[in-house]
Structures are given as C-alpha cells and as structure tokens.
Design brief:
- It contains five helices and no strands.
- It has helices at residues 21-27, 32-59, 62-79, 82-96, 100-119.
- The chain has one domain (18-119): Four Helix Bundle (Hemerythrin (Met), subunit A) (Up-down Bundle).
- It is an all-alpha fold.
- The two termini are 28 Å apart.
- Helix 2 runs antiparallel to helix 5 (100-119), helix 3 runs antiparallel to helix 4 (82-96) and helix 4 runs antiparallel to helix 5 (100-119).
Amino acid sequence: MTLGGPASPGSGARGNPAIDRSILGEWLAGDDAAINELLAVFRDSIRDEQIVMRNALSAGDLTEFANACHRLRGAALSMGARALADVSGVLYSAAKAGDAGACAAGMASLQTHIDLVVAEVP
C-alpha cells in the first residue's frame, strides 16, 4: 500500500468488507450483540486515535503520531479491519522514518478507510 492514494469508496481491501466480522465471531461465539457492541467501542477509539494523529502531525510530533498509528494498527487487526491496519502500518513506518510529508499525504487514505469501517458499524 502506498500513501496518499485513497481507497475506492464503498470497498475495503480489494472490494471486501472493511471489517472481517468472522474474526470477532470466533472470539465471541457468533454473539451479534456483543460483536456490535465491541465494534461500536472500536469505532469510537479509531476516531479518537485519528484526532491524536492530526494533533501530533500539526505539532510536528512524529513520535506521538507513530504511537497513535501503532495503537490504531493493533486495534484494527484485532477487529478484522485489515485495510485500515495496512494504512496505519504504512503511516507508522513513515513517521518512524521522519517523513512528515508522507504522513500528511497519507491522512486522506486513512480517512477513507476509517469512513469505510464506520459505515459497517451498526
């Protein structure tokens, strides 16, 4: 995945759903109410991390930006949001490399993937 190029609207990774609910279904024995509750918490947390990332980028704090990317990537992987995890990982790498321009350029793609995930949370 490269930075700066947003995903196609209405698609997760290569047209797949943005969230692989089977990941949570295995953990929660297919309990849809519990899955939806967990996804709602995830939705709120990714929005919070996005705010942290924006603020860190505005302040030129690539260490905090990288930390937020790392947290977002881990949460996305655990929820089955692989494309969001991929974007977060690319942004993390850019931040660790000190490339503020690539971090800024990648925020549009991050927004697209967050929007895709949010759209799938009931």
